[in-house]
Amino acid sequence: MNLILAALALALVQVGFLGWMIAGRAAILRDGKEILLKVEPVDPRDLLRGDYVFLSYEISRIPVKLIGDIPAGKQTNDEGQITVRLQKGADGYWRAVSAWLAQPPPSTSADDVDVVGHIAAGWTLSGDTTLAPDYGIERFYLPEGEGLAIERDMRVRPFSIRAAVSIDGVAQVKALMDGDTMLFEEPLY
Amino acid sequence: MASYSSKVKRDIARWVESGLIEPRTADALARDIEANERRSLSFGSILAMMAALLLGAAILIFVAANWEAIPRLVRVAALFAVIIGGYVGGAFAKMRGHPAVGEALWIVAAAAFGGSIALIGQMYHFSGDESVAMLTWCTGTALAALVLRSGPLTVVAVGIADAWLMTKLLGFGLFRSMDFPHLFLVLAAALFAVSYWTRSQAARHVIVQSVIFYVVTLALDHNLLGMAILLALVSAAVFAVGVFVPVAADNIIKLGGQLPLHGLIGFLTGTALVQFELADSNGFAPAAVAALAGITGAIILAGRQSRGLRWVAYLGFAFELCLIYAVTMETMLGTAGFFLLAAVVLGALAFAIIRIERRMNHPVARETVS
Predict the structure, then answer these.
(1) Which residue has the higher pLDDT, B131 or A34?
(2) Mean pLDDT in residue range B123-128
(3) Smallest Cα–Cα separation from B253: which of B302, B192, B323, B170?
(4) Count of beta carbons in the 10 Å neighbourhood of residue A164
(5) CB neighbours of B136 closer than 8 A, spacing ≥ 6?
(6) What are the structural domain ranges in chain A?
(7) B178-B183-B185 Cα angle (round to 5)
(8) Which residues of chain A neighbour B117 with C-beta distances below 8 Å?
(9) Which ipTM score applies to this complex?
(10) What is the mean pLDDT of residues B5-15?
């Protein structure tokens, strides 16, 4: 009997953990601020998770000049996070206006959105170079067999991603757009 | 198999009821039966494990197909049902005296946990880190092994840790920082500790071999020579411990007396790496001599106890001959001379193996007869 109770408790802990993961993501989709990001495609397919397209954005390259708090005398960065402040452009796409390696100063405009990315160590922190952060939104999973067609279209037409960003800067993909047409929109669950 | 253990367990329950033995003794007896039963796996339980692994793979690939005909919330619910049903159903089967079926169901549940992590990653388009997903899966499976005190789940957790190491090494995260996955040592140590509680000798064997593999990749990645020499020396020390204080060592490590075998494998791997690195230098000859001396020493010191160790030693010896040939081959004449030498050596080796096998098998045979 004890074994069955232990097994039940274990199952509930694991299912509870998975439910917590889902609830966290659904909360970002529901409550996050919405942004539109321009996409540049790279390359599909992942063994375990079926088809996806690898997405690269304009904000995947951040000019070092935008970074407001480069530590004095530092040639390259350490691995860590970068906070990028986005503003909506006239064409509807959101673009980076400034970035910080440490804590960002409070935003002056209600229209700003701060998104937190991760950068690997060793990027040069001087001159006209750029950094390549990732934001955890670099993949879009597609039903089996549809990855290649969409990847092909991406090379000829502008695609974009609607994403939600939580208060603490976590980004979550909401929809994949082909021009103005919506290809896939994610339900909360 | 199952019928014997369930019969004894029924008897034990009766003995407890009639006050013949204490409940604690009963528990110890039941555990002993289970532990010994696992050692003599029947054909049926092996098939059950294989079926479980196949079912687990089916779940993972089904998730990967991202089939839209079934709404994803239904897919999530189905996986959750498999998790709960697998763990609880496995516990039922185990208590009814079908340990193999129980363990198999637990493996299916653990696979469903991994499949759920992948499905959630797919639902919300997680990018990057398979690494985090696999570590989460490994932790969940290790937790299951702990709670259910399951040997097979411990082995599965070790397998997931190994798979994580491989993905890290093969550089799935091409755009991530390429830090060497030293975390594997922590995983290995933690799972080794878990394996004591779950009484899984198999898991410990796999962990020791995995650690040797990890050191090999570390040697290839970093300072090859120093790391390889260290591997050979540490392995030789482990071998010595296993040979000279076998009982004390096995009381701690609990590898079924196979510690010298692991030591020999590590030593051979280390010396092979050293020889690869020194192939074009004067250091090759001493390294080759050390390897050959090690093999001979291993047979003399521990050959009698373990047939497996002897064959690993022979394999190592044959490998050494090939390596020495490949390195020393220069001219046709030299090659011809080497072949002549090799023929003589191989003949001598065959003679020696036959003699050693006969000598080492006979006393054992006589002991078992008497």
Answers:
(1) A34
(2) 81
(3) B192
(4) 23
(5) B117
(6) 32-185
(7) 130
(8) 18, 21
(9) 0.84
(10) 84
